[in-house]
Amino acid sequence: MSTGGPLIDLRRYADREHLLLASYAMHSSDSAGRGHHEQPHAYRGPYGRDRDRILHSSAFRRLSGKMQVFTGEMGTYHRTRLTHTFEVASVARTLARVLRLNEDLTEALALMHDIGHPPYGHCGEDVLSACMSDVGGFSHNQFALTIVEQLEQRYHAFAGLNLSAETLAGQDTRAHKSEAAVGRAPLLEVQIVDAADSIAYDAHDVDDALQMGLLSIDGLSELAIIRRALQRVRDKAGDLPIGPTRQLLVHELIDLQVSDLLQISVELLQSAQGMSADHVQDAGFRIHHSEVLAVERRELETYLFNAVYRHPRLIPVRESAAHRVRVLFDTLTQNPARLPLRFRRRTESIPLARVVGEYIAGMTDHFCDQQFVNLGHSAAGPLADW
């Protein structure tokens, strides 16, 4: 039976947000819009559209071939950038729902946050940043913006994904964290994605390192946060074999951090009731963990840096990956004719070193391996585009 009009329209979408979201959340009706004007969608808000555009982008799909910390040479269990991204999105949406923030914006920011990462994890970024020192270095957070604003090819009339201003601003905040740490605060949705990223990679690096034998439960038990999480495991399940213990430990590590963050945030935001997102930013509201947990998390991260990221088994793998990136960069800057056509065209307006860095940064681990091999097998002709 016809109702005489559309079943869903933007007014109803705004009404739904008004009912569900806190005043200090980023409401879709307050969006500053897009760089290129588009007609509103019948039943999706602006941030839901952003989320879908990121999800369907080629850069997002390539995350499945980019390792988080460890490379594919070390097995298949550990996280890729894609699995990490989904885990961050899950934690971030939980935080957003409890705090009554905009879940669509939160998810869009979470799905985009790592699409600028180069191949070979942190090693790839370190090498590219050194190679590109003459043009300002390399930042995966900044490169994510380059991808969604310039390199993704979705529309015939303009480059990029034409994302909402708030989604782009949130990623820009990640690219300029030191500036964002003082003065006007980022949107709360931006802050919880940053927190979710940190929570996820701490817990999951522990999981991956334990599974690969780089760490032991006994060694980790020296850390206060691990002892607390293990006690929660034993209180619920008793003494278990190492496999189930590891899995439950990761769960408790995440739950411990999320619960602490929510408790502090709920208390903090009580005084923000009735304030708009803009006013909360002006007032400098910043969510954070309790002082006790913040100290314990720093202890864990220092331990992981020394015991995992500098583990002897990783050093030769990282050195080999670094060599491939460096050779590719040096060869392409010396012979830009080997760049794919669209990257050669970018050199007309962008410094060559930056374009070469962009080309390499967009590669998956396997694609980078392939192009490194192709350099040796062919003396001429451009390499493949990703």
How would you describe what is shown here?
This protein starts with 9 loop residues before the first helix and ends in a 9-residue tail after the last helix. Helix 4 runs antiparallel to helix 5 and helix 4 crosses helix 13. With 386 residues, it is an all-alpha fold. The protein has one domain: Hypothetical protein af1432 (Orthogonal Bundle). One of its GO terms (molecular function) is dGTPase activity.
Q: What is this structure's SSE topology?
A:
Elements: H1 10-20, H2 46-55, H3 58-62, H4 81-99, H5 103-112, H6 121-131, H7 140-151, H8 165-175, H9 177-180, H10 188-211, H11 217-220, H12 224-237, H13 242-269, H14 277-282, H15 291-309, H16 315-334, H17 341-346, H18 352-361, H19 365-377
Helix pairs in contact: 2-5, 4-5, 4-10, 4-13, 5-8, 5-10, 6-16, 6-18, 7-8, 10-13, 10-15, 12-13, 16-18, 16-19
Strand fraction band?
under 5%
The class by helix and strand makeup works out as mainly alpha
**Tally the helices: what do you get?**
19
Helix content: 55-70%
Question: How would you sum up the global shape?
Answer: globular
Unreliable parts: 1-5
Biased composition (Basic and acidic residues): 33-49
GO molecular function: dGTPase activity
Region (Disordered): 29-49
Pfam family, one: HD_assoc
